[in-house]
Write a structure and sequence with these properties.
One of its GO terms (molecular function) is (S)-2-hydroxyglutarate dehydrogenase activity. Belongs to the D-isomer specific 2-hydroxyacid dehydrogenase family. The protein has 399 residues and is an alpha/beta fold. The protein is 31% helix and 20% strand. It has three domains: 127 residues, NAD(P)-binding Rossmann-like Domain (Rossmann fold), CATH 3.40.50.720; 181 residues, NAD(P)-binding Rossmann-like Domain (Rossmann fold), CATH 3.40.50; 82 residues, ACT domain (Alpha-Beta Plaits), CATH 3.30.70.260. The protein contains 13 helices and 16 strands. The chain has a seven-stranded parallel beta sheet, sandwiched between helices. A five-stranded parallel beta sheet has the order 2-1-3-4-5. Strands 14-15-13-16 form a four-stranded antiparallel beta sheet, with helices on both faces. It starts with a strand and ends with a strand. The relative contact order is 0.11. It binds 1,4-dihydronicotinamide adenine dinucleotide. The site of 1,4-dihydronicotinamide adenine dinucleotide has 30 residues, from α5 and α7. 1,4-dihydronicotinamide adenine dinucleotide binds next to α5 and α7.
Length: 399
Amino acid sequence: MLRALLLESLHPVATSILRAEGVEVITRTGALDDDELAEALQGVHLLGIRSKTQVTERVLDRAPDLLAVGAYCIGTNQIDLGAAAHRGVAAFNAPFSNTRSVVEIALAEIIALTRRLTERDKALHAGVWDKSAEGAHEVRGRTLGIVGYGNIGTQLSVLAEALGMSVVFYDSAEKLSLGNARRLHTLDELLEVADVVTLHVDGRGGNAGMFGAQQFARMKEGAIFLNLSRGFVVDYAALRDHVLSGHVAGAAVDVFPDEPKRRGDSFESDLRGLPNVILTPHIGGSTEEAQEAIGQFVSGKLLQYVGHGSTTLSVNLPNLALDERTGSHRLVHLHRNTPGVLAGINKVLAEHEVNIEAQLLATRGDLGYVVTDVGSDLTPEVCATLGTMPQTIRLRVLS
Ligand code: NAI
């Protein structure tokens, strides 16, 4: 029977999906340190974590039963992915389960800032009836400039068009335009026409400081700026200058270069106290719906891996999408990627008169992953021979 340990208060659906497939699930609310985790992992095949649990090489060395780790979040820095792969432990995350939540907060902010709701709200809370249309606009007919047309950028494009916005985007990669969105070939072209500029680029190192004084200066007078991507992408001192000068009419910022670790911690930023600036504590993707979607997605990935050997979207193993097995057994073989492994496996099978019904191979760097469906029974000798090949990292037989 498979056993899973789920830490850090995951959404209940993460547990129910695993239990429905007969997995015994142990849950804990907090994270565990190295020693506690290693101890708790004895006899555990699946580990579910969020960002606080560190899955180090030391932990992995002491968790011989572990088959897979699910990061029920986006980031996977907390897992030593290489060490896990080389011990035959697959890792999965939820790369796009919270993207809709980011899109919705972006839309809310675009309307709120274009309408200067922040100021009206603040005034009324302070007891001042500031009824005025000055500086307040509809978003209909205005141009939204999306920088980074990926999972989030594309969804925002579709919903913004439904609101009557005209969408332009700039992406450094070749991207298909959705709806009537217009692709522009440089960031500068986008900055010249956009009434709202919103950043949805990924966190690659080269994006550090990509949006600074020069880019703010190129924005249209009175345009609005949003960053819900990564804090290090934007020079916030430059944003502050452009908000104070009035050149940028409003901004929403959800991500910061140095974010406090814990809820309730104090927060320092150049952007605090600026007019028509919405600051949020990296909650773009934080909704109950996103948590549920993440729970479903990652538990599903873990089950597909242990049940079928499928590694689709694994962040550390070669990716193979697999259906139900076709034969009576499925041999799942993770190995060091050197010439001749596939031939070696097939030779062993042929020598033991085991017929191959289907076979797929994928590689990723120095790892190879071959999945073989066989029609006949496997003797312990076949399994032992494959399991002790010098290149074998892990062999599993699914039946
Ligand atoms: P994605 O990887 O699907 O899309 C990123 C796009 O940006 C890609 O199309 C890429 O080609 C493009 N890109 C990268 N560098 C660029 C550059 N310098 N100029 C133009 N285009 C560039 O990523 P996804 O899922 O859409 O996420 C976007 C960002 O949102 C990421 O940085 C992610 O970390 C962040 N995010 C923030 C959340 C929050 O809570 N605020 C929640 C989820 C994601």
